[in-house]
Amino acid sequence: MRGEEERVVKAKINREGCISCGLCVSTCPDVFAMADDGFAEVCGEITDGNAAEAQEAADNCPVNVIEIED
Ligand code: SF4
Fold first, then answer.
1. Residue 24's closest CA among 47, 49, 10, 63?
2. Does residue 24 sit within a domain?
């Protein structure tokens, strides 16, 4: 990848499966937050600066409900 083209990358959470462990929020608070209902939600876009953390959060979610889409 050349890195000059701007790609929009988004995270998505299948919230029905979230077990509210909070791991994604502590791993990447730029992108994930705990919503008022107690489950995680996407709160921001993935950027070059937080993409690694967002991917780590997706990889480490214990119930695998986070998807990174581009
Ligand atoms: S890591 Fe997964 S299960 Fe834990 S709060 Fe985030 S989305 Fe929910």
1. 63
2. yes
Q: The domain containing residue 41 runs over which residues?
A: 10-69
Amino acid at 34: M
Count of domains for the chain: 1
* pLDDT per residue as tens digits for the range 3-55: 556 678 899 999 999 999 999 999 999 999 999 999 999 999 999 999 999 99
Measured distance CA(55)–CA(36) in Å, rounded: 24
Strand spans (E) along 1-70: 10-13, 32-34, 40-42, 66-69
Q: Separation of 48 CA from ligand 1 center, angstroms?
A: 22
CB of 22 sitting under 6 A from ligand 1: yes
